[in-house]
Amino acid sequence: MSSGNNKVAAPPAAPPAPPPAAGPAPTFSEIMNKSAASAIRGGTAGALAMGANVAALMWMRTTINYQYRNGGSFVGALKHLYGDGGIPRFYRGVLPALVQGPLSRFGDTAANTGVLTFLDNIESTKNLPVAAKTVAASAAAAGWRIFLMPVDTVKTTMQVTGKFSAVTDKIKATGPRALYNGALAAASATFVGHYPWFFTYNYLSATIPKQDDQLKELGRRAILGFSASAISDTCSNSIRVVKVYKQSYPTQLTYTQVVSKVIAESGVQGLMFRGLETKILANGMQGILFSILWKHFEEALFPKEIK
Prior knowledge:
Blueprint: H1 28-70, H2 74-83, H3 94-120, H4 130-147, H5 149-161, H6 165-174, H7 183-207, H8 214-248, H9 255-273, H10 276-301
Helix pairs in contact: 1-2, 1-3, 1-5, 1-8, 1-10, 3-4, 3-5, 4-7, 7-8, 8-9, 8-10
Region (Disordered): 1-28
Solcar repeats: 128-207
GO cellular component, one term: membrane
Protein backbone atom coordinates (compact mmCIF):
# COMPACT_ATOMS: atom_id res chain seq x y z
CA MET A 1 0.00 0.00 0.00
CA SER A 2 1.38 3.39 -0.79
CA SER A 3 2.31 5.76 2.02
CA GLY A 4 0.09 8.70 3.03
CA ASN A 5 2.71 11.12 1.69
CA ASN A 6 1.40 10.76 -1.86
CA LYS A 7 0.07 14.17 -3.06
CA VAL A 8 -2.98 14.64 -5.20
CA ALA A 9 -2.18 16.66 -8.31
CA ALA A 10 -3.85 20.07 -8.40
CA PRO A 11 -6.25 20.69 -11.25
CA PRO A 12 -4.76 22.69 -14.11
CA ALA A 13 -5.18 26.45 -13.80
CA ALA A 14 -7.90 27.94 -15.89
CA PRO A 15 -6.58 29.85 -18.91
CA PRO A 16 -6.70 33.65 -18.54
CA ALA A 17 -9.86 35.24 -19.77
CA PRO A 18 -9.42 36.81 -23.19
CA PRO A 19 -9.43 40.60 -23.22
CA PRO A 20 -12.79 42.09 -24.03
CA ALA A 21 -13.24 42.53 -27.74
CA ALA A 22 -12.69 46.09 -28.86
CA GLY A 23 -15.82 47.75 -30.07
CA PRO A 24 -16.13 48.54 -33.74
CA ALA A 25 -14.32 51.67 -34.83
CA PRO A 26 -16.68 54.63 -35.19
CA THR A 27 -17.83 55.28 -38.71
CA PHE A 28 -17.01 58.52 -40.49
CA SER A 29 -20.65 59.56 -40.17
CA GLU A 30 -20.58 58.96 -36.40
CA ILE A 31 -17.37 60.97 -36.07
CA MET A 32 -18.86 63.85 -38.06
CA ASN A 33 -22.04 63.83 -35.97
CA LYS A 34 -20.04 63.84 -32.75
CA SER A 35 -17.82 66.65 -34.04
CA ALA A 36 -20.83 68.71 -35.11
CA ALA A 37 -22.51 68.22 -31.74
CA SER A 38 -19.33 69.29 -29.95
CA ALA A 39 -18.99 72.31 -32.24
CA ILE A 40 -22.58 73.41 -31.55
CA ARG A 41 -22.13 73.00 -27.79
CA GLY A 42 -18.85 74.90 -27.72
CA GLY A 43 -19.97 77.48 -30.24
CA THR A 44 -23.28 78.28 -28.54
CA ALA A 45 -21.58 78.67 -25.17
CA GLY A 46 -18.89 80.81 -26.80
CA ALA A 47 -21.45 83.06 -28.47
CA LEU A 48 -23.31 83.66 -25.19
CA ALA A 49 -20.05 84.38 -23.38
CA MET A 50 -19.00 86.83 -26.09
CA GLY A 51 -22.36 88.60 -25.98
CA ALA A 52 -21.81 89.26 -22.28
CA ASN A 53 -18.30 90.46 -23.10
CA VAL A 54 -19.54 92.98 -25.67
CA ALA A 55 -22.04 94.40 -23.21
CA ALA A 56 -19.40 94.79 -20.49
CA LEU A 57 -16.33 95.86 -22.47
CA MET A 58 -17.56 97.70 -25.58
CA TRP A 59 -16.04 100.99 -24.37
CA MET A 60 -12.57 99.46 -24.27
CA ARG A 61 -12.94 97.89 -27.72
CA THR A 62 -13.86 101.28 -29.17
CA THR A 63 -10.81 102.84 -27.52
CA ILE A 64 -8.52 100.14 -28.95
CA ASN A 65 -9.80 100.55 -32.51
CA TYR A 66 -9.49 104.32 -32.23
CA GLN A 67 -5.85 103.87 -31.15
CA TYR A 68 -5.21 101.41 -33.97
CA ARG A 69 -6.38 103.98 -36.50
CA ASN A 70 -5.01 107.18 -34.95
CA GLY A 71 -2.30 106.15 -32.50
CA GLY A 72 -1.83 107.93 -29.20
CA SER A 73 -2.08 106.81 -25.60
CA PHE A 74 -4.94 105.05 -23.85
CA VAL A 75 -5.75 108.13 -21.74
CA GLY A 76 -5.51 110.43 -24.77
CA ALA A 77 -7.90 108.23 -26.74
CA LEU A 78 -10.36 108.15 -23.84
CA LYS A 79 -10.33 111.95 -23.59
CA HIS A 80 -10.82 112.44 -27.32
CA LEU A 81 -13.68 109.94 -27.55
CA TYR A 82 -15.43 111.36 -24.51
CA GLY A 83 -15.07 114.87 -25.89
CA ASP A 84 -16.55 113.69 -29.19
CA GLY A 85 -19.86 112.63 -27.67
CA GLY A 86 -19.62 111.63 -24.06
CA ILE A 87 -20.26 108.08 -22.88
CA PRO A 88 -22.55 107.21 -25.85
CA ARG A 89 -19.55 107.78 -28.17
CA PHE A 90 -17.93 104.64 -26.77
CA TYR A 91 -20.95 102.61 -27.87
CA ARG A 92 -21.15 103.71 -31.51
CA GLY A 93 -21.40 100.48 -33.47
CA VAL A 94 -22.82 98.51 -30.55
CA LEU A 95 -25.56 96.86 -32.66
CA PRO A 96 -23.17 95.36 -35.24
CA ALA A 97 -20.84 94.51 -32.35
CA LEU A 98 -23.61 92.50 -30.68
CA VAL A 99 -24.00 90.59 -33.97
CA GLN A 100 -20.36 90.28 -34.97
CA GLY A 101 -18.88 89.52 -31.54
CA PRO A 102 -20.97 86.48 -30.64
CA LEU A 103 -20.96 85.15 -34.21
CA SER A 104 -17.19 85.48 -34.55
CA ARG A 105 -16.62 83.76 -31.22
CA PHE A 106 -19.15 81.09 -32.19
CA GLY A 107 -16.95 80.34 -35.19
CA ASP A 108 -13.77 80.37 -33.10
CA THR A 109 -15.06 78.08 -30.38
CA ALA A 110 -17.03 75.84 -32.74
CA ALA A 111 -13.90 75.41 -34.85
CA ASN A 112 -11.75 74.66 -31.81
CA THR A 113 -14.20 72.24 -30.19
CA GLY A 114 -15.46 70.60 -33.38
CA VAL A 115 -12.10 70.17 -35.11
CA LEU A 116 -10.44 68.79 -31.97
CA THR A 117 -13.30 66.31 -31.49
CA PHE A 118 -13.04 65.26 -35.13
CA LEU A 119 -9.27 64.75 -35.00
CA ASP A 120 -9.46 62.96 -31.64
CA ASN A 121 -11.78 60.35 -33.16
CA ILE A 122 -9.73 59.59 -36.27
CA GLU A 123 -7.21 56.81 -35.68
CA SER A 124 -4.50 58.43 -37.79
CA THR A 125 -4.82 61.87 -36.13
CA LYS A 126 -5.90 61.25 -32.54
CA ASN A 127 -2.29 61.16 -31.30
CA LEU A 128 -1.22 64.35 -33.06
CA PRO A 129 0.19 67.02 -30.73
CA VAL A 130 -2.15 69.77 -29.57
CA ALA A 131 -0.21 72.28 -31.69
CA ALA A 132 -0.97 70.44 -34.92
CA LYS A 133 -4.66 70.03 -34.10
CA THR A 134 -5.00 73.70 -33.21
CA VAL A 135 -3.59 74.76 -36.62
CA ALA A 136 -6.55 73.07 -38.32
CA ALA A 137 -9.01 74.78 -35.99
CA SER A 138 -7.35 78.15 -36.60
CA ALA A 139 -7.66 77.81 -40.37
CA ALA A 140 -11.38 77.09 -40.04
CA ALA A 141 -11.87 80.11 -37.78
CA ALA A 142 -10.02 82.40 -40.22
CA GLY A 143 -12.40 81.45 -43.03
CA TRP A 144 -15.38 82.23 -40.82
CA ARG A 145 -14.07 85.74 -40.12
CA ILE A 146 -13.97 86.56 -43.84
CA PHE A 147 -17.65 85.61 -44.04
CA LEU A 148 -18.40 88.13 -41.26
CA MET A 149 -16.36 90.99 -42.73
CA PRO A 150 -19.26 93.29 -43.75
CA VAL A 151 -20.60 93.38 -40.19
CA ASP A 152 -17.08 93.83 -38.82
CA THR A 153 -16.39 96.72 -41.20
CA VAL A 154 -19.55 98.58 -40.17
CA LYS A 155 -18.75 98.07 -36.48
CA THR A 156 -15.10 99.08 -36.74
CA THR A 157 -15.73 102.16 -38.91
CA MET A 158 -18.40 103.41 -36.53
CA GLN A 159 -16.10 102.88 -33.56
CA VAL A 160 -13.27 104.81 -35.22
CA THR A 161 -15.24 107.65 -36.83
CA GLY A 162 -18.44 107.67 -34.79
CA LYS A 163 -20.50 107.90 -38.00
CA PHE A 164 -22.46 105.34 -40.00
CA SER A 165 -22.24 107.77 -42.92
CA ALA A 166 -18.51 107.00 -43.12
CA VAL A 167 -19.49 103.47 -44.18
CA THR A 168 -22.11 104.52 -46.71
CA ASP A 169 -19.87 107.22 -48.21
CA LYS A 170 -17.11 104.69 -48.81
CA ILE A 171 -19.54 102.22 -50.39
CA LYS A 172 -20.80 104.98 -52.71
CA ALA A 173 -17.24 105.84 -53.69
CA THR A 174 -15.80 102.34 -54.16
CA GLY A 175 -18.74 99.92 -54.27
CA PRO A 176 -19.67 96.97 -52.04
CA ARG A 177 -16.08 95.72 -51.97
CA ALA A 178 -15.49 98.41 -49.34
CA LEU A 179 -17.24 96.11 -46.88
CA TYR A 180 -14.45 93.57 -47.40
CA ASN A 181 -11.55 95.97 -46.96
CA GLY A 182 -9.07 94.29 -44.67
CA ALA A 183 -10.49 90.80 -45.21
CA LEU A 184 -7.07 89.25 -45.80
CA ALA A 185 -5.69 91.00 -42.74
CA ALA A 186 -8.74 89.91 -40.73
CA ALA A 187 -8.26 86.28 -41.71
CA SER A 188 -4.52 86.49 -41.05
CA ALA A 189 -5.03 88.20 -37.70
CA THR A 190 -7.62 85.61 -36.75
CA PHE A 191 -5.28 82.74 -37.61
CA VAL A 192 -2.26 84.36 -35.98
CA GLY A 193 -4.32 85.34 -32.93
CA HIS A 194 -6.56 82.26 -32.74
CA TYR A 195 -3.75 79.73 -32.92
CA PRO A 196 -1.71 80.98 -29.93
CA TRP A 197 -4.91 81.70 -27.95
CA PHE A 198 -6.32 78.20 -28.23
CA PHE A 199 -2.92 76.48 -28.21
CA THR A 200 -2.09 78.26 -24.94
CA TYR A 201 -5.57 77.58 -23.58
CA ASN A 202 -5.56 73.92 -24.63
CA TYR A 203 -2.01 73.38 -23.36
CA LEU A 204 -2.60 75.02 -19.98
CA SER A 205 -5.99 73.33 -19.68
CA ALA A 206 -4.28 69.95 -20.08
CA THR A 207 -1.37 70.93 -17.81
CA ILE A 208 -3.11 72.66 -14.90
CA PRO A 209 -5.46 70.16 -13.21
CA LYS A 210 -9.09 71.03 -12.66
CA GLN A 211 -9.96 72.10 -9.14
CA ASP A 212 -12.78 70.63 -7.06
CA ASP A 213 -13.28 73.89 -5.21
CA GLN A 214 -15.48 76.19 -7.30
CA LEU A 215 -13.56 79.36 -6.44
CA LYS A 216 -10.22 77.74 -7.26
CA GLU A 217 -11.63 76.45 -10.54
CA LEU A 218 -12.75 79.97 -11.46
CA GLY A 219 -9.23 81.17 -10.69
CA ARG A 220 -7.78 78.42 -12.87
CA ARG A 221 -10.01 79.43 -15.78
CA ALA A 222 -9.11 83.09 -15.28
CA ILE A 223 -5.39 82.25 -15.49
CA LEU A 224 -6.01 80.25 -18.66
CA GLY A 225 -7.98 83.08 -20.26
CA PHE A 226 -5.58 85.89 -19.39
CA SER A 227 -2.47 83.94 -20.44
CA ALA A 228 -4.04 82.94 -23.75
CA SER A 229 -5.15 86.51 -24.52
CA ALA A 230 -1.82 88.16 -23.69
CA ILE A 231 0.14 85.81 -25.95
CA SER A 232 -2.43 86.05 -28.75
CA ASP A 233 -2.51 89.86 -28.69
CA THR A 234 1.25 90.22 -28.87
CA CYS A 235 1.46 87.90 -31.87
CA SER A 236 -1.31 89.52 -33.93
CA ASN A 237 -1.21 93.22 -32.98
CA SER A 238 0.54 94.61 -36.07
CA ILE A 239 -1.86 92.78 -38.40
CA ARG A 240 -4.85 94.21 -36.53
CA VAL A 241 -3.43 97.73 -36.80
CA VAL A 242 -3.27 97.29 -40.58
CA LYS A 243 -6.78 95.79 -40.69
CA VAL A 244 -8.46 98.61 -38.77
CA TYR A 245 -6.55 101.32 -40.67
CA LYS A 246 -7.55 99.86 -44.05
CA GLN A 247 -11.17 99.29 -42.99
CA SER A 248 -11.75 102.78 -41.63
CA TYR A 249 -9.74 104.87 -44.11
CA PRO A 250 -12.10 106.97 -46.26
CA THR A 251 -10.60 105.80 -49.58
CA GLN A 252 -9.18 102.55 -50.90
CA LEU A 253 -5.61 101.76 -49.85
CA THR A 254 -3.40 98.81 -50.63
CA TYR A 255 -1.79 96.94 -47.76
CA THR A 256 1.58 98.39 -48.77
CA GLN A 257 0.16 101.92 -48.59
CA VAL A 258 -1.37 101.22 -45.18
CA VAL A 259 1.92 99.96 -43.77
CA SER A 260 3.76 102.97 -45.23
CA LYS A 261 1.26 105.43 -43.74
CA VAL A 262 1.37 103.86 -40.27
CA ILE A 263 5.18 103.83 -40.28
CA ALA A 264 5.25 107.45 -41.48
CA GLU A 265 2.91 108.45 -38.64
CA SER A 266 4.49 106.55 -35.75
CA GLY A 267 7.40 104.46 -37.00
CA VAL A 268 7.87 100.70 -36.96
CA GLN A 269 7.18 100.76 -33.24
CA GLY A 270 3.74 102.18 -33.98
CA LEU A 271 3.05 99.44 -36.49
CA MET A 272 4.05 96.72 -34.05
CA PHE A 273 2.78 98.10 -30.76
CA ARG A 274 0.12 100.76 -31.44
CA GLY A 275 -2.65 100.17 -28.88
CA LEU A 276 -1.05 96.95 -27.61
CA GLU A 277 -1.02 97.87 -23.92
CA THR A 278 -4.70 98.76 -24.05
CA LYS A 279 -5.47 95.63 -26.01
CA ILE A 280 -3.67 93.36 -23.55
CA LEU A 281 -5.58 94.99 -20.70
CA ALA A 282 -8.94 94.79 -22.49
CA ASN A 283 -8.43 91.35 -23.94
CA GLY A 284 -7.02 90.12 -20.65
CA MET A 285 -10.25 91.17 -18.97
CA GLN A 286 -12.23 89.77 -21.89
CA GLY A 287 -10.21 86.55 -21.89
CA ILE A 288 -10.80 86.01 -18.19
CA LEU A 289 -14.52 86.74 -18.51
CA PHE A 290 -14.89 84.69 -21.70
CA SER A 291 -12.94 81.72 -20.36
CA ILE A 292 -15.09 81.57 -17.23
CA LEU A 293 -18.41 82.16 -19.00
CA TRP A 294 -17.68 79.86 -21.96
CA LYS A 295 -17.23 76.76 -19.81
CA HIS A 296 -19.98 77.88 -17.43
CA PHE A 297 -22.52 78.19 -20.25
CA GLU A 298 -21.34 74.94 -21.85
CA GLU A 299 -21.76 73.02 -18.59
CA ALA A 300 -25.05 74.74 -17.76
CA LEU A 301 -26.64 74.28 -21.19
CA PHE A 302 -25.32 70.80 -22.00
CA PRO A 303 -24.66 69.05 -18.65
CA LYS A 304 -25.29 65.54 -19.98
CA GLU A 305 -22.88 65.91 -22.88
CA ILE A 306 -19.99 67.31 -20.81
CA LYS A 307 -17.85 64.63 -19.24
